[in-house]
Design a protein that fits this description.
Rossmann fold, about 375 residues, about 15% strand, alpha/beta, 12 helices, 16 strands
Amino acid sequence: MAERILITGGAGFIGSHLGRHLLQRGYGVRALDRLDPQVHPRRERPTYLEDEVELIEGDVRDPAAVEEALEGVDGVVHLAARVGVGQSMYEIAEYCSVNTVGTAVLLEALIKKPIRRLLVASSMSVYGEGLATTEEGRVAEAVERDRAQLERGEWEPLSADGSSLTSRPTPETKRPTLSSIYALNKYDQERMCLLFGSSYEVPTTALRFFNVYGPDQALSNPYTGVLAIFGGRLLNGRAPLIFEDGEQRRDFVSVHDVARACGLALERDSAAGRVVNVGSGESITVREIAERLARVTGREDIEPQVTGKYRVGDIRHCFADISVARELLGYEPQLALDDGMAELAGWLDGQTAEDRVESAHGELAARGLTL
């Protein structure tokens, strides 16, 4: 009999792609999702969710809904979370409730309903600034940009003595630096799940996702992934808005590769008790990604608007060292960025998006969280 996997947050962007991937691999799939209106404005089952996915509408903080969702499952992929660095800095109670308390409710339920495997979605945000080295080649510890530096428009992190740093691929061994409530929540989630796994002998892996992109992302959610935000702006004939000078570097990984990594982690006990980066292993500037998206969508006449502003909680550079994923999971990214962006452009054609980006920026500005 095929194993059944529960995906919390399974009607969302990553969850729906993972559900499709697991169905193709012969698993039964159940999704628990509250259909948050910020992601699902119509509060109904999304059309992109495979018909074979059993959807239970419920909140991960509701013990009764969680117990129902766990009935007869062999493994859990815990994706349910409020997502967004900026919003987490003013909807603090809501983020901590969904992300931290929701995880606690799930884990308490799992004490009574043992499973074979547990995965939890963590985030590159737990690193804060990515790994950097000094001019002498030493690893720079606890690199952070203070507000005074940002207010001067000095974007690059500096070493303790004020000298320049070189950004490097960030490995799992890099010490976390939690620069937002969202980052703190994700670290809570991964540590809680790993502690649970070791205490109750449930093989557990925390997957630190980098910047995930692809079709079916919520274009009208101003706190979703940056490529979806830029895509929504372009669909409305508006320039993508870029913070700082646009030279910050990120690792963009296709949702198809993320789904494959989750599938591999469900089947490889070699990753039990570990945190594992899931990225492309490459980096690109935010300005360049905006320009490339404009080109592939046929809107190259719309140039990105570099605002010179900053958001509290943002970091400068972070991109993945994926050697652990290669070693433990046999993971290798399969979709190159050019191909992934072409797929995204094809999906964007014909989509509509309500542009809420400027109102979201206004929420941050009103609270002094962007300048």
